[in-house]
Design goal:
One of its GO terms (biological process) is glyoxylate metabolic process. By secondary structure, this protein is α/β, with parallel strands linked by helices. Helix content is 41%, strand content 13%.
Length: 275
């Protein structure tokens, strides 16, 4: 059965952020992910993880900003990453270095580098060249710290103008950079919205070894995975059949209370045992 990590940016939001760790542990999660850690000192987060007996498995590099204060504010100010943005290379590097500091303090094995929205009128070739240069630098910096870096296709409905939207685009960049610690974050929610044919995409890309993390949510409302058009019981069986041993991040918005909506997870071992 897949290993599931609670996404504390979307789940348990009925509680203050630092209290969500214990709530996730009480529901049986052993690992967590979230969007950004930068509003909290790394030692505070490390202590909170330790007290809850949790492993940190993923977070995002800052979506913008070249100072700690600006990095904390960047998401609310509408920034969605600088990977592909010409002229923002120093901001990108500052964000990666900040993320790596947190990754080491939290013993987190991977970080996600947000690609950014495409500037109006910018040639895609220029954006791709910028992304490639930034990825080569980031992969080396992360390798020196023993950390993986991920890039993720995100659907244009939720994030209009995002640079990476398809699995093929992300895997193309990963293949060109050819760094062993650069991989794709495959969110099945985004994949279904943009491309569909999710099971075949899993069968195509997981055997390459270039998928470093998977995330899930129901489509189209981004609620629990047992609601919507995707048959996750079937897809979890596909993951098992393909031998996927990584984490599956639960990046969904609960409909009415996080713990109350975990019936899908409690039922899962019984459902998979029938297949």
């Amino acid at each position: 059965m897949p290993r599931f990590a609670a996404n504390l940016s979307l789940m348990y939001t009925e509680q203050p952020f630092l209290e969500r760790f214990a709530a996730a542990a009480a529901d049986g999660f052993t690992a967590v992910e979230y969007l950004f850690p930068y509003a909290y000192a790394p030692e505070v987060l490390a202590d909170t993880l330790a007290q809850a007996g949790l492993q940190q498995v993923l977070f995002n590099a800052p979506p913008g900003g070249d100072t700690p204060e600006a990095m904390v504010a960047a998401w609310e100010e509408g920034m969605r990453g600088t990977l592909c943005l010409p002229g923002q290379e120093q901001v990108f590097q500052a964000g990666v270095l900040q993320a790596l500091r947190y990754a080491q303090a939290l013993r987190c094995p991977r970080i996600h580098l947000m690609s950014g929205r495409m500037p109006e009128g910018a040639p895609r070739k220029l954006l791709e060249d910028t992304a490639l240069c930034n990825l080569r630098w980031a992969a080396q910096a992360a390798a020196d710290a023993g950390v993986e870096v991920l890039i993720e296709p995100i659907n244009g409905r939720d994030m209009p103008g995002y640079f990476l939207q398809t699995q093929a685009q992300a895997h193309h960049l990963v293949q060109l950079v050819a760094a062993p610690n650069l991989k794709v974050q495959m969110d099945l929610y985004h994949c279904q919205i943009v491309e569909g044919d999710v099971a075949m995409k899993l069968r195509q890309y997981l055997p390459t070894g270039r998928v470093g993390h998977i995330q899930i949510a129901g489509v189209p409302e981004r609620h629990e995975p047992d609601v919507g058009e995707l048959n996750y019981d079937y897809l979890f069986g596909v993951l098992d059949a393909l031998g996927y041993a990584g984490w599956v991040g639960c990046e969904y918005r609960p409909r009415a209370g996080t713990s109350q909506g975990l019936g899908w997870l409690r039922r899962l071992p019984q459902e998979l045992s029938k297949k």
